[in-house]
Design brief:
The chain has 545 residues and is of the alpha/beta class. It has 2 domains: 96-129 and 374-529, 3-Layer(aba) Sandwich (Rossmann fold), CATH 3.40.50; 147-367, P-loop containing nucleotide triphosphate hydrolases (Rossmann fold, 3-Layer(aba) Sandwich). Helices cover 36% and strands 14% of the residues. It has 20 helices and 16 strands. It has helices at 5-12, 24-28, 43-71, 148-158, 165-175, 190-204, 206-209, 227-244, 257-264, 276-284, 301-304, 310-318, 326-329, 349-354, 390-399, 415-427, 441-444, 447-452, 486-493, 514-529, and strands at 80-84, 91-92, 119-122, 180-183, 220-223, 248-251, 271-274, 295-299, 338-343, 364-367, 378-384, 407-411, 433-435, 458-461, 474-479, 505-511. The chain has a 9-stranded mixed β-sheet with strand order 2-1-3-11-16-15-12-14-13, sandwiched between helices. A 7-stranded parallel β-sheet has the order 6-7-5-8-9-4-10. α4 (148-158) crosses α8 (227-244) and α10 (276-284) crosses α12 (310-318). It is globular and about 95 Å long.
């Protein structure tokens, strides 16, 4: 049946409500019915948004031009502080990022897998280790108060005639008899800063204590966290004390109580160098006494406060005759022990621990300007890699070494990695030594000494070799496993560029895990701002009397 025109319109086009008449073209068109309506804004508002967008683009172009100018080699300073694979992210040494400004970081995108192969490098802006800003005018040890016979023994034994910055600050205070907390960057000469005052006090009190000298009661004691570091300090002290008629002995863990007795059997002990475990075992078995102790040094105190040592150190302090006030510390007829805590950092726990046994308000606080800062004379490179690429990159670094290059330290995160990487180097006929804490004492004995004498040029080790050891022969440090903390990173970097080092220092770090990237960001930010590393514990503050 035929339909009328009106009926046809009603069947094909249903009735549309009045409020939808404005949307009639959308319903009849081929476009999607879900397209949104056009929203009109006032013209004045539109012009304001355009101006804001233009200003934002102008500022962005200015920042890019400034970064490009800083990255170009023909800048006014002529040197780069940070060199990046992407030139626009490099930074000139004359440009310092503001304190509250967040810089553009090379490592910002390193948590993504596509960032593998990227790298950046902190350039060497100085050729020699930095010195203190307020070094003073003293140019010799005798001007600091060191006796001529001690200074002469130092010159004859170690050929050292001029003090470093930390020695200029610490020696006069320690010679005055005050206890002190001293923190300075690694490789700045902290060992001699406490050994010279210690030896001089032993010489001055020799006649007073000659009748009381006992086999089991040393007059000077230096406590260190590892056997390698104890052997190194004992060697330096022996060079000086042999020329001055003083006896130096050493006890370390891993050899049993019989070895401790044999070491102390040779006669009166003027200076004893010991590790915490062996020392506390000797005190518990009454092989050793601290009744006549005049000088106590806690070297690498930040490591001695680790959970594995802190209980032993607290027990040691409880048995030490420390002064409870400043007047008792200076009593010649009832002498007390002068305490020195030395390290690359002073955590807050030092004050809490010492306050249990002595008056911390009598201590002198000695810190360095470059404490917790990246060393400007050490070149530091960070490479983003897959875990399977680290061996290839390491072998290439070792292959590129010249015949006159210095020694190499390769740091691993665990003893198992040290052993596994040692097998890889054996397969490639690369001579090396391995050092890790799980080795028996007989295997570890004299191992680091062989490395110092350049009998082997490559040492694969854990962080046991990163604390205080003298490595003036080392030119390259490789962080095969990135360190877990910023403290560990500073200690590892401190193995190169030390005072008296014969080679320019270089550190290469392999960045593999996402948690490694978090630390690299902090390091890069501190480098761009030329500021101390964030999150480090501040030095101990002197409490109010």
């Amino acid at each position: 049946m035929a339909l009328s025109c009106s009926g046809l319109r009603q069947a094909a086009f249903p009735r549309v409500p009045r409020r939808s008449l404005l949307s009639w073209p959308r319903l009849c068109s081929d476009e999607s019915p879900q397209k949104e309506n056009v929203i009109r804004i006032p013209r004045a508002w539109q012009r304001q948004l355009e101006l804001q967008k233009a200003e934002s683009n102008a500022k962005r172009r200015a920042r890019l031009e400034a970064a490009a100018a800083a990255a170009s080699p023909d800048t006014r300073s002529g040197k780069l502080l940070l060199r990046s694979r992407r030139q626009e992210l490099s930074q000139s040494s004359g440009l310092i990022v503001g304190r509250w400004e967040r810089p553009r970081l090379v490592s910002d995108g390193w948590k993504h897998r596509l960032s593998r192969g990227d790298f950046f490098q902190l350039e060497r802006t100085r050729q020699d280790p930095p010195q203190e800003r307020d070094e003073g005018d003293s140019s010799s040890f005798q001007e600091l108060g060191v006796e001529p016979r001690v200074a002469s023994a130092l010159q004859d034994a170690l050929a050292i005639s001029k003090p470093t910055a930390v020695q200029k600050r610490a020696i006069p205070v320690l010679l005055g008899g005050r206890s002190a907390l001293c923190a300075a960057e690694t490789g700045s000469g902290k060992t001699l800063a406490y050994l010279l005052p210690l030896i001089q006090r032993l010489l001055q009190g020799q006649s007073l204590f000659a009748s009381h000298a006992s086999l089991i009661s040393p007059r000077g004691l230096v406590v260190l966290p590892s056997r390698e570091l104890a052997g190194q300090v004992r060697s330096v002290a022996s060079y000086l004390c042999v020329r001055l008629g003083l006896q130096v002995r050493e006890i370390g863990g891993g050899r049993g109580l019989g070895a401790v007795r044999r070491n102390l059997r040779g006669g009166p002990t003027d200076l004893l160098v010991a590790t915490p475990g062996a020392l506390c075992k000797a005190l518990q078995r009454r092989v050793l006494s601290l009744e006549k102790l005049c000088f106590l040094v806690l070297d690498e105190v930040d490591t001695l406060l680790d959970p594995s040592f802190v209980d032993l150190v607290e027990d040691l302090l409880q048995q030490t005759p420390l002064p409870t006030s400043h007047t008792k510390a200076s009593d010649d007829w009832d002498p007390k022990t002068q305490l020195v805590a030395m390290g690359a950092s002073l955590p807050k726990g030092v004050g809490d621990l010492l306050s249990k046994v002595t008056d911390v308000s009598t201590f002198s606080i000695l810190t360095s300007y470059y404490l917790h800062r990246l060393q400007p004379h050490v070149e530091q490179k960070f490479i983003r890699l897959k875990g399977s690429e680290k061996v290839t990159e390491l072998l290439q670094l070792l292959k590129d070494r010249g015949p006159t290059s210095g020694a190499v330290l390769i740091f691993c995160g665990s003893a198992n990695t040290v052993n596994w990487l040692g097998y890889i180097l054996d397969d490639h006929k690369i001579k090396h030594l391995r050092l890790q804490g799980q080795m028996p004492a007989t295997m570890r004995a004299n191992l680091f000494t062989r490395f110092q004498k350049r009998q082997f040029d490559i040492l694969v080790c854990t962080d046991i070799a990163s604390r205080g050891l003298d490595t003036t022969q080392v030119e390259l440090v490789v962080n095969y496993d990135f360190p877990q903390t910023l403290h560990d990173y500073l200690h590892r970097v401190g193995r190169v560029g030390r005072v008296g080092s014969k080679f320019p220092g270089t550190v290469v770090s392999f960045v593999t895990h996402k948690w490694d990237v978090d630390l690299v960001k902090k390091i890069e930010t501190a480098a761009r701002k030329k500021a101390p590393l964030p999150g480090m514990e501040p030095p101990v503050k002197k409490p109010q009397p």
